[in-house]
Amino acid sequence: MRELEERTGVHRETIRVYLREGLIPEPARPAKPSPTMVRNMCRRSWRCGGCSAKTG
User: Fold this and answer.
1) pLDDT class for 56, splitting at 50, 70, 90?
2) In 3D, which of 8, 33, 34 has the Cα closest to residue 23?
3) What are the extents of the domains in the chain?
4) Cβ neighbours of residue 39 under 8 Å, at least 6 residues apart?
5) Which are the contacts of 2, defined by CB distance < 8 A and separation ≥ 6?
6) 1-34 burial, b for 16+ CB within 10 Å, e for fewer?
7) What is the pLDDT of residue 47?
């Protein structure tokens, strides 16, 4: 949203109205990481000796 505001100069609330009314397409959003992906990332991190995140 911020990038769209900066590139167009259009206020955030105006962009939200345009989205709600279907005047512009919804932006692509990155997929949320799965619990398995989070655990694997945590295991690879030198700061974390393993991850105790629950999968559910």
Assistant:
1) very low
2) 8
3) 2-44
4) 51, 53, 55
5) none
6) eeeeeeeeeeeeeebeeeeeeeeeeeeeeeeeee
7) 56
C-alpha span between 56 and 37 (Å, rounded): 13
Give residue-wise pLDDT tens across range 9-24.
Answer: 999 999 999 999 999 9
| Alpha helix positions (H), 1-56 | 2-8, 12-20, 35-44
**Whole-number Å distance between alpha carbons of 40 and 22:** 38
What is the distance between the alpha carbons of residues 53 and 55, in angstroms, rounded to a whole number?
Answer: 7
Query: What global pTM score does this model have?
Result: 0.50
How many Å apart are CA 9 and CA 40, to the nearest integer? 40
